[in-house]
């Protein structure tokens, strides 16, 4: 039993961090097993039996128990096909086999198009066991074998897939009538129509066929159902109802005529059947409460959508307006502020100007107070020179320096102190390169004038 | 399946001379095993397929081919197609095939035939059991004559739906013929054993379909073959499509031809019909070998001789409905077993009708190319399908004949044969191109009887290193991909009278493949430090209680991992 299968696709690498006790991790357990019988045949079985028995002896009880546990593979022949046989049917003549209900003959009325091939075979066998003429003869009966022929014919038709379809196409026994008004009133709408369309669905080339459903079906399912049946692809055909075509060679025209007639009849029936189904679907659709319900729901949802849309539009509009107003307000405020700022600036400037003017007056006042740094009445040239320097200084300093200088000069009455302040200022400006020493006529010559 | 020992006095193993017997409704065969090789024995007429028929003429008993010829002139005293009647009530038998020979009837709560089997005019009522005994006695005689030693025991094959009551009846009938039945085995299992016993057959896991197409019935069996142990998963029995229905096709064909010339229906006269039947069967067999067969009957009806021919193509056309019946039967039982045609590894054709080339060809079309269809026309080394059952029986006989009857009884006891089978495959994951997705590699197949043990060797990644052994359960399903059909410019013929349904060409072709789905994770293990280009051996051992032992080790290296999963 050493099967050494080779696998060429490689094993995965061990994931990072994988850990198991002694490199093994038990994770699950085997799924439940099936008890089955192995065949007591072959050398490998004998080896198994030796191991399994191991000097043990089994009893009849062991046998029964083991057999009960084992899954059965042979089907029970009994069951299912046990319809009572209608005496009328038993006296049928096999010659009108075309009119016979093949399913009923085999006892499969309950199954019809749903009967599996296996069921048909079994049903046939059951009927043969009962009705074979040789058996009846053996039992001393002299009945004719007419019904046995019916059985054979039914089987021939039903075990031939082509013939079976032809018969199933016209098997009225499988038709389900649409419900009456009363049935619908009694609340059988879904149940009854389900049965109708289940039966109609047998003709569909496309399987499975969507179910009719009930009041709880979803819109999608219902739409699916109607789409399916409005586009029904049917294999139904009507050759089974052909009139017999003469089998002899003499009447060839007659034969051709019959064939043409049959062909036309088949086509006509097919067209009628398509129309019939369409009408059926129209009828059920007209009375289908689900369709109304879905329409109402759709309307309600449409309305809701409209309202929602309107509300949204209004909100958008309101929002836009509010935004606009806010923007206007902001602009206005900004403008006002700018205006205020502007005014403020003007005032300050004026004040500064005034201050400068005042300070300049202080400066000029200071040199005047110091009598232009001469004793006695100051000659015009001296006054000129001093005022020239003062104006030079004033022209080269800004408002702050003006204010600072004025502050220093303010209150000074002594000519020397005044002169000191001025000469310091002149020096500062000369050092800073703002004025040239040469341009200064009076205020720098501290030592020269002999003033002190 | 064991035999109630009481009716046949058990022979001591040393005194046994056992053969294999296949007894059908149509034919029987006998086989012996010499040096582990089974061979089917020809009877005194040189036939290996011995028609299971008894016929009496002036008190003399004929069997086989000679008895079959009596169906024409002496049908009332000829008993045929009786095997399935054994152990049944008259109520539950189908007498259809006995219509042209002695009819069965009810007799003292059993079934009997009333025939003139002795000299003189007196008729006797011979029970089914006695008929079977007489048939078996003849088989025993042929086998004893061949081997020069009295045969006293046998393994006999039966259909899988043979009831205990039927086996009981057959056992008693054999005992009365001086044959101790060592064991009854199922016909399809015998056929499989016949193939598996060939020295070139490797023991492995496979799903096998045995299609036994006989004369009056067709039986199909799906078998899980796991390490030489066999489990039947599904069966189907069909009495509507079998060898006689092919005979019927030819009968009708030649009758129509005869009617055309002579305006006489040969089927309306019993003797004409008997001739027609025998010659139809002969033509059918000839068509299995040649592409033409002649059909020739002297005085077919009202003294008119009839000669005709038929070629194989014509035959295959008129027999199509029966062939298609076989196809549906086979497809149906595969489905019934919960399998798909893609799950089937081997199809064994057994039974006389399996000689027909077209049938084997049809099966080749149903199953994928990977499935081996074992039939004479598809596999040159195939075993004669008519001999499979008897050969298998002979092989089994040689395996068990040395055991005491009591031992055989106990070893075949249901307490031994009823065992747990895995519901899912168990396998190990490896990786393909896509690193994230594991690929399931089955190690143990579903439907393996436990205890069972299997080993695989799995490659390691290119560079070696530490590897992960992940053991999981796996289920398979069928993936269908639609392939657009190639437009082959075929015009669709007039819908209305196209009884030939050729329109399957128009549908988009489907490509079907079996894919594994990873299920329940059972365990993980690590094998460390594997070498470049190495292999890891993984062994999975499932015990009878479904506990599992897993071992993994690098091939050629020491040590390894071992772990257990407790029983569920
Ligand atoms: N070479 C052949 N070609 C075609 N059919 C054949 C060939 N040989 C035998 N047969 C047919 O096989 C059938 C018999 O099959 P087999 O010997 O397996 O029967 P069986 O198992 O006894 O039958 P039954 O199903 O009635 O129990 C007959 O219908 C016979 O005509
Ligand atoms: Mg057989």
Automatic annotation (TrEMBL), chain A:
Q: Which cellular components does GO assign to this protein?
A: cytosol
Spell out the Basic and acidic residues composition-biased ranges: 57-74, 307-322, 332-351
GO annotations under biological process?
'de novo' cotranslational protein folding; regulation of translational fidelity
> Does this entry carry the keyword Protein biosynthesis?
no
Domain named J is located at 101-171
Mind telling me which SMART domains this protein's record contains? DnaJ (SM00271)
Query: Pfam families under this entry?
Result: DnaJ, RAC_head, ZUO1-like_ZHD, Zuotin_N
**Acidic residues bias locations:** 75-86, 241-250
Where are the residues of the annotated region Disordered? 51-94, 241-273, 296-351
GO MF terms, alphabetically ordered? Hsp70 protein binding; ribosome binding
Q: Where is the composition biased (Basic residues)?
A: 254-269
| UniProt xrefs under PROSITE patterns | DNAJ_1, DNAJ_2
The record's subcellular location field reads: Cytoplasm
| Keywords on record | Chaperone, Cytoplasm
Domain of life the protein comes from: Eukaryota
Main location (coarse class): cytoplasm
* Record's protein name: J domain-containing protein
Q: What is the lineage of its organism?
A: Eukaryota, Fungi, Dikarya, Ascomycota, Pezizomycotina
From TrEMBL, chain B:
Bias (Basic and acidic residues) occurs at: 481-493
Compositional bias of kind Acidic residues: 494-510
Question: Gene Ontology cellular component?
Answer: cytosol; nucleus
Please verify whether the record's keywords include ATP-binding.
yes
Q: Which SUPFAM superfamilies match?
A: Actin-like ATPase domain
> What are the start and end residues of every segment in region (Disordered)?
480-515
- Recorded protein name is Ribosome-associated complex subunit SSZ1
């Amino acid at each position: 039993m050493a099967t050494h299968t080779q696998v060429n696709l490689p094993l995965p690498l061990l994931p990072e961090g994988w850990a198991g006790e002694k490199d093994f991790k038990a994770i699950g357990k085997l799924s439940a097993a099936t008890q089955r019988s192995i065949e007591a045949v072959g050398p490998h079985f004998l080896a198994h039996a030796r191991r399994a028995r191991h000097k043990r002896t089994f009893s009849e009880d062991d046998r029964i128990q083991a057999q009960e546990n084992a899954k059965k593979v042979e089907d029970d022949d009994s069951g299912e096909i046990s319809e009572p046989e209608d005496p009328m049917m038993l006296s049928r003549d096999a010659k009108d086999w075309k009119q016979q209900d093949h399913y009923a003959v085999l006892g499969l009325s309950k199954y019809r198009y749903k009967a599996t091939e296996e069921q048909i075979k079994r049903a046939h066998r059951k009927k043969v066991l009962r009705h074979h003429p040789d058996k009846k003869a053996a039992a001393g009966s002299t009945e004719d074998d007419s019904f046995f022929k019916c059985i054979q014919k039914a089987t021939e038709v039903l075990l031939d897939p082509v013939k079976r379809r032809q018969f199933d196409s016209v098997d009225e026994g499988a038709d389900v009538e649409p419900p009456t008004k009363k049935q619908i009133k009694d609340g059988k709408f879904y149940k009854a129509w389900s049965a109708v369309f289940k039966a109609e669905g047998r003709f569909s080339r496309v399987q499975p066929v969507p179910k009719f459903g009930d009041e709880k079906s979803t819109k999608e399912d219902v739409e699916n159902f109607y789409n399916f049946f409005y586009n029904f692809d049917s294999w139904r055909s009507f050759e089974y109802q052909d009139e017999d075509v003469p089998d002899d060679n003499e009447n060839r025209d007659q034969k051709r005529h019959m064939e043409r007639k049959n062909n036309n009849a088949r086509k006509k029936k097919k067209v009628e059947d398509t129309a019939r189904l369409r009408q059926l679907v129209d009828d059920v659709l007209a009375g289908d409460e689900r369709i109304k319900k879905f329409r109402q729901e759709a309307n309600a949802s449409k309305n809701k959508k409209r309202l929602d849309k309107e509300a949204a539009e209004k909100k958008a509009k309101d929002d836009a307006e509010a935004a606009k107003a806010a923007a206007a307000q902001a602009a206005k405020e900004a403008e006002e502020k700018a205006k205020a700022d502007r005014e403020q600036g003007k005032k300050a400037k004026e004040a500064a100007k005034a201050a400068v003017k005042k300070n300049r007056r202080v400066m000029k006042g200071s040199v005047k107070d110091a009598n232009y740094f001469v004793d006695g009445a100051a000659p015009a040239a001296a006054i000129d020179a001093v005022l020239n320097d003062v104006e030079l200084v004033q022209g080269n300093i800004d408002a702050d320096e003006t204010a600072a200088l004025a502050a220093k000069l303010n209150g000074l009455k002594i000519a020397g102190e005044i002169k000191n302040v001025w000469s310091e200022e002149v020096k500062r400006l000369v050092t800073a390169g703002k004025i040239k020493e040469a341009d200064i006529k009076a205020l720098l010559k501290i030592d020269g004038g002999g003033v002190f | 399946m064991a035999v109630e020992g009481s009716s046949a006095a058990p022979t001591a193993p040393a005194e046994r001379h056992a053969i294999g017997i296949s007894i059908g409704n149509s034919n029987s065969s006998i086989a012996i095993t010499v040096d582990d090789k089974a061979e089917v024995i020809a009877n005194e007429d040189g036939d290996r397929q011995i028609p299971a028929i008894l016929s009496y003429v002036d008190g003399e008993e004929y069997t086989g081919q000679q008895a079959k010829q009596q169906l024409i002139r002496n049908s009332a005293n000829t008993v045929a197609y009786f095997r399935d009647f054994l152990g049944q009530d008259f109520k539950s038998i189908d007498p259809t095939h006995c219509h042209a020979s002695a009819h069965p009837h009810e007799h003292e709560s059993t079934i009997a035939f009333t025939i003139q089997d002795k000299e003189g005019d007196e008729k006797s009522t011979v029970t089914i059991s006695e008929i079977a005994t007489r048939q078996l006695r003849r088989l025993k005689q042929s086998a004893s004559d061949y081997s020069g030693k009295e045969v006293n025991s046998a393994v006999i094959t039966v259909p899988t739906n043979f009831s205990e009551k039927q086996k009981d009846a057959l056992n008693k009938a054999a005992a009365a013929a001086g044959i101790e039945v060592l064991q009854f085995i199922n016909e399809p299992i015998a056929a499989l054993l016949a193939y598996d016993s060939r020295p070139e057959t490797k023991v492995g896991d496979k799903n096998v379909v045995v299609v036994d197409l006989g004369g009056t019935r067709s039986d199909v069996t799906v078998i899980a073959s796991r390490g030489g142990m066999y489990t039947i998963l599904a069966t189907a029995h069909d009495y509507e499509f079998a060898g006689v229905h092919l005979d019927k096709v030819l009968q009708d064909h030649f009758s129509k031809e005869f009617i055309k010339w002579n305006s006489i229906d040969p089927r309306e006269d019993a003797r004409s019909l008997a001739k027609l039947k025998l010659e139809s069967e002969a033509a059918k067999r000839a068509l299995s070998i040649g592409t033409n067969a002649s059909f020739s009957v002297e005085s077919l009806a009202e003294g008119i001789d009839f000669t005709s021919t038929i070629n194989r193509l014509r035959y295959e056309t008129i027999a199509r409905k029966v062939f298609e019946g076989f196809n549906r039967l086979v497809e149906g039982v595969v489905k019934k077993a919960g399998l798909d045609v893609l799950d089937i590894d081997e199809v064994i054709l057994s039974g006389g009708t399996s000689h027909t080339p077209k049938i084997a060809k049809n099966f080749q079309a149903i199953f994928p190319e990977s499935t081996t269809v074992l039939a004479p026309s598809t596999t040159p080394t195939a075993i004669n399908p008519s001999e499979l059952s008897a050969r298998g029986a002979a092989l089994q006989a040689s395996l068990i004949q040395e055991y005491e009857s009591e031992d055989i009884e106990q070893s075949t006891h249901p307490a031994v044969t009823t065992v747990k089978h895995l519901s899912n495959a168990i396998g190990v994951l490896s990786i393909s191109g896509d690193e994230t997705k594991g690929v399931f590699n089955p190690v143990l197949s579903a439907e393996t009887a436990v205890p069972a043990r299997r080993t695989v060797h799995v490659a390691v990644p290119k560079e070696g290193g530490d590897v992960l052994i992940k053991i999981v359960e796996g289920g398979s399903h069928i993936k269908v991909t639609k392939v657009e059909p190639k437009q082959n410019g075929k015009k669709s013929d007039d819908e209305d009278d196209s009884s030939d349904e050729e329109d399957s060409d128009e549908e988009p072709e489907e490509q079907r493949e079996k894919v594994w789905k990873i299920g329940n994770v059972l365990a993980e293990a690590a094998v460390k430090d594997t070498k470049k280009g190495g292999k890891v051996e993984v062994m999975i051992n499932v015990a009878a209680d479904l506990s599992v032992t897993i071992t993994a080790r690098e091939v050629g290296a020491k040590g390894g991992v071992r772990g257990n999963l407790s029983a569920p």
